[in-house]
Specification:
This protein is of the alpha/beta class and about 230 residues long. The chain has a single domain, classed as Aldolase class I (TIM Barrel, Alpha-Beta Barrel). Helices cover about 35% and strands about 20% of the residues. Strand 7, helix 6 and strand 8 form a beta-alpha-beta unit. The N and C termini lie close together (about 10 Å).
């Protein structure tokens, strides 16, 4: 499997000093900036848009920005996020009228593309587009809010997705999002994930200590991942 990547979700960051938060978490060893876009339509919450992505790039963030679009319709925002500096753009198949066309649009704008699967969304959407995606993102909570608990049934779905990716022969990352913590990240890795979104587990723990010490949280996650059977 691929190297482990840790992707802090800035949904849980302190937005009053977002640039510094992102700088600090990357300096602590994070790999990707996970950027949750919610539209109060596809999901029951409203968050951030392309201007914030552009602001992070202008601030000096050079790491990959992984834009997870929980919006409907999808195609309207793909060019905007590509222009704002997105590296990956992933979307939910239920939110696109033409999945293949949306994936192609992402590629046309020189971004990596991916599909996102809610807990009850079948992986069968992948059957005809494996050659067009760079990322499969499995939601281990229902999308819309941070701080939710991991849904255990996602483990079997992870194993199924891992098998599909391996058998396809394509270079595709398998990402997990929702309730990822130090005490379950090893098991999640062993089920097949290689990219780990964590919001409150990273930002929340550091903020509660008033130290904003992201090194210890990310270090503990790395230590658990190193113990995984298939690391």
């Amino acid at each position: 499997m691929k190297d482990n990547l840790i992707a802090p979700s800035i949904l849980s960051a302190d937005f009053a000093k977002l640039g510094a938060e992102v700088d600090n978490v990357l300096a602590a060893g994070a790999d990707i900036v996970h950027f949750d876009v919610m539209d109060n339509h596809y999901v029951p919450n409203l968050t951030i848009g392309p201007l914030v992505c552009d602001a992070l790039r202008s601030h000096g963030v050079t790491a990959d920005i992984d834009v997870h679009m929980m919006v409907k319709p999808v195609d309207r925002f793909i060019p905007d996020f590509a222009k704002a500096g997105a590296s990956y753009i992933t979307f939910h198949p239920e939110a696109s009228e033409h999945i293949d066309r949306s994936l192609a649009l992402i590629k046309e704008h020189d971004c990596k593309s991916g599909l996102v699967f809610n807990p009850a969304t079948p992986l069968s959407y992948l059957d005809y587009v494996m050659d067009k995606i760079d990322m499969v993102l499995l939601m281990s909570v229902n999308p819309g809010f941070g701080g939710q608990s991991f849904i255990p049934a996602t483990m079997d779905k992870l194993r199924q997705a891992r098998k599909m990716i391996d058998e396809s022969g394509y270079d595709i990352r398998l990402q997990i999002d929702g309730g990822v913590k130090v005490n379950n990240i090893r098991e999640i890795r062993e089920a097949g994930a290689d990219t780990f979104v964590a919001g409150s587990a990273i930002f929340g723990a550091a903020q509660e200590s008033d130290a904003h010490d992201y090194d210890s949280v990310i270090g503990e996650m790395r230590a658990e991942l190193a113990k995984a059977n298939n690391a």
